[in-house]
Write a structure and sequence with these properties.
Strand content: under 5%
Distance between the termini: 35 Å
Shape: elongated
Order of helices and strands: HHHHHH
Number of strands: 0
């Protein structure tokens, strides 16, 4: 889920047009928190519990934005919001588990965490979100397009690119 949640967050950014500062902060935290959690698991119990708490806050912010967003598809809205609700529950188990590791007390076993993060996140978070975002199908906005590179070529790639370089007839399907 740590791989797909940033992608789902990016799709949310295509449809959510309000509270862009909150969305931006939440995005950075969603992107960086899994790295911090991994460092915490490896090196520091304190960093682990802090990183999980920060990640949890970012996911709750993301859920808030999901519930404030107007979706085009009723089915997409229901699936995405359901996914978000399940994620808000499962991330609480992560905090409980991290707290147990921090206190050196077993609160949840590894087997329980694998079940929660494996099965529940796969079927309760990822699949509904994939189906919901597929149904919603948000398109990028050209108005907000930004240049990400200062490297420019001498040619322009567009709908007539293949015609302009005389390559239309060379395409094999």
């Amino acid at each position: 889920s740590a791989f797909l949640i940033p992608i789902f967050n990016g799709l949310l950014g295509r449809v959510h047009r309000e509270k862009r500062v909150m969305y931006g902060w939440g995005t950075w935290i969603i992107l960086l928190s899994p790295l911090l959690i991994a460092l915490g698991i490896t090196y520091s119990k304190t960093l682990d519990i802090l990183a999980v708490g920060i990640y949890m806050a970012a996911l709750y912010l993301n859920s808030y934005l999901i519930f404030k967003t107007a979706f085009r598809s009723k089915t997409g809205k229901v699936l995405i919001r359901m996914s978000s609700l399940v994620l808000m529950i499962t991330i609480c188990f992560s905090l409980v588990y991290s707290f147990g590791v921090f206190r050196q007390e077993v609160t949840l076993t590894i087997s329980q965490m694998i079940w929660i993060h494996g099965v529940v996140n796969a079927f309760g978070v990822i699949l509904p979100a994939l189906a919901g975002w597929r149904k919603e199908n948000p398109q990028p906005s050209d108005a907000s397009a930004k240049v990400f590179s200062r490297i420019y070529g001498k040619r322009t790639i567009g709908k007539n690119f293949l015609h302009n370089i005389h390559a239309e007839n060379n395409i094999q399907y």
